[in-house]
Amino acid sequence: QVQLVQSGAEVKKPGASVKVSCKASGYTFTSYGISWVRQAPGQGLEWMGWISAYNGNTNYAQKLQGRVTMTTDTSTSTAYMELRSLRSDDTAVYYCARGPLPSGTALDYWGQGTLVTVSS
Amino acid sequence: SSELTQDPAVSVALGQTVRITCQGDSLRSYYASWYQQKPGQAPVLVIYGKNNRPSGIPDRFSGSSSGNTASLTITGAQAEDEADYYCNSRDSSGNHAVVFGGGTKLTVL
Q1: CA atoms of A17 and A62, how far apart (whole Å)
Q2: Checking CA distances to B93, which of A12, A87, A119, B107 falls within 20 to 30 Å?
Q3: Which of B7-16, B81-90, B92-101 has the lowest mean pLDDT?
Q4: Is the pLDDT of residue B74 over 80?
């Protein structure tokens, strides 16, 4: 069965960086992209960007351009999301999700989420 | 601000039918997908494409689309359907970015 398992919770100080991992299993990793979505406390879902696990192409949300980097390691079927220059409003649960396919919109499997707390 | 607009809250009596809507220009070009999220849990895909349900999603969930509006319908709402529901699509600028609606909190009375 398809599973996305994320790394554990992080506490960071303002200005620091965080790197969250997402290990995929149960499918051919390079056949799908991975999206990253975050959710601030009590707020809605915010798409952060997408990376192709096939060729590493990325598409980042405009508001995060320059602060976010998404990568993959096909040898371990793991995707990574690094966010730099952290601010208090980056405090959120960060999810990885499989998809979407090029012509679609669906994110069909999600990781369990990683809480990132930014606090001095 | 989201390019997809959802009503913040909707309620439905147990066993009745409820429609949750999502509006946005990009829905003229792309089908919306719909997600259910319960407190403390990751979102779950419930509808994608024209009207497709992933394995394990009850058939009381259905989707439709007309013009710039996509709808998620729950026919015979159950207590366990109480949750937040989000739509998503691509943005309307052509850069293939994904956008989410602001979410609708569904209360089953």
Answers
A1: 19
A2: A87
A3: B92-101
A4: yes
